[in-house]
Amino acid sequence: MDTSTPLGRLMLGILSAFAQLERENIRERTRMGMKERVKAGLWPGGGRIPFGYDYDKEKGVLTPNANAETVRKIYELYLSGYSAGRIARMTGLKYEKLALQILTRKSNAGYISYNGEEYLGRHEAIISLDTYERAMDFMLERASGQAEGGRYLFTGLLHCGRCGAKMRYQKWGKDGCKIVCYSRDKSKPHLVKDAACDNARQWACDLESAVLEDLFSFSLKEKRAAAAKVSAQSVLEILNRQYDEAARKMKRLYNLYSESSDDILPEAIEELRRQLAEIKKQITREEERNVISEKIEKVRKTLTTLKESWPYMTAQEQRNVIRSCVEKIVIDGERVEIFYKFAGFAQEAT
Predict the structure, then answer these.
(1) Bridge-partner residues for 325, per DSSP?
(2) Can you give the three-state secondary structure of 10-46, one letter per residue?
(3) Closest residue by Cα to residue 207 from 82, 326, 320
(4) Residue 219 near residue 306 (C-beta atoms within 8 A)
(5) Confidence (pTM)
(6) Contact 87, 93 (CB under 8 A)
(7) Of 150, 147, 184, nearest to 165 (Cα)?
(8) Is the confidence at residue 223, as pLDDT, over 80?
(9) DSSP reduced 3-state for 172
């Protein structure tokens, strides 16, 4: 084809357009094929394989390798309050960034992320979905804690028991700090709840010692309770057994009804159907409660190991752990009440 003539150049342009269209069609078919593959739970292949996994080309899925245990340890350490940098050093990872990348990969919980969407994968999960979600929640808490936490242990958690205002650390003397109600700080009028508030200033070091002593004491109580705890059937297990038993009765009644003309059977079947529906509702409610209970138990676990790990934490790690366990601290004179992140649970520091 002579491209020096107008017709030749026109033909070249047309052929180039067709070639570009074909490339786009191939790319679209490949993309659609890849999406269908991922929707089926198969790993898309290519690219970098997540740390802790190998790629089985024949089956098209990820398989956990020897590093899977390291991945589990990374989540365990992170949820215990260790920083990504410290975790990287403890587990032999080269970079802090790699520890963060591992923590944020949902593939560790059995999912595949593709083009901004998530699909349940066929590969074996290294951690549970609950562990992954708790780590992500903790990451958000840490981020907000680092933004608001400053350099003091309980910043943002202190509340006045007299007027309800927030309290803050205030430099006192050469080296000390006291805890002061914002109602007594006229520099920030928008935080004042009662200008006549007479809540006394407390030395910060005394308050911190009292709260930490309470936390460590609570740790020991939790350990003793766990050691003394006997195995018992959960309400959910009982409800599931009741449901199975009612379902078996229903099946027997249907069989009898198909072989008999007894007028009582339809009423009995209807009554069983109502029982099944009610048990199902109770199971749903109990499952919801269990999800909350599991999260509470995870926070309790953090408390049970707090005393042992506390001396080895950085100041920022200590602040982050406090924020994962404590909702607020209310101060009324010498009376200090700690509200933990357990529904309806509070404890007075002595």
Answers:
(1) none
(2) HHHHHHHHHHHHHHHHHHHHHHHHHHHHHHCCCCCCC
(3) 326
(4) yes
(5) 0.43
(6) yes
(7) 184
(8) no
(9) strand
Q: Could you give the CA distance from residue 220 to residue 165 in angstroms, rounded to a whole number?
A: 32
Helix or strand or coil: residue 91? helix
Cα separation, 27 vs 240, in Å, equals 50
> pLDDT, tens digit, for every residue of 167-198?
989 888 877 899 999 898 777 777 888 888 99
pLDDT at 105: 92
Contact 152, 169 (CB under 8 A): yes
- Cβ neighbours of 96 (radius 10 Å): 15
Q: In the chain, what is the straight-line distance between the N-terminal and C-terminal CA atoms, in Å?
A: 95
Q: Give the confidence band of 148 by pLDDT, cuts at 50, 70, 90.
A: very low
d(CA 102, CA 202): 43
- Residue 225 has a pLDDT of 47
Q: What is the pLDDT of residue 240?
A: 77
Distance of CA 90 to the CA centre of its chain: 22
Following DSSP, what letter does each residue of 276-330 receive, concatenated?
HHHHHHHHHHHHHHHHHHHHHHHHHHHHHTHHHHGGGS-HHHHHHHHHHHEEEEE
DSSP 121-134: -SSPPSS-HHHHHH
Give the number of residues written for the chain.
350
Contact 87, 99 (CB under 8 A): yes
Cα 114 to the chain's mean position, in Å? 22
Distance (Å, rounded) from C-alpha 277 to C-alpha 274?
5
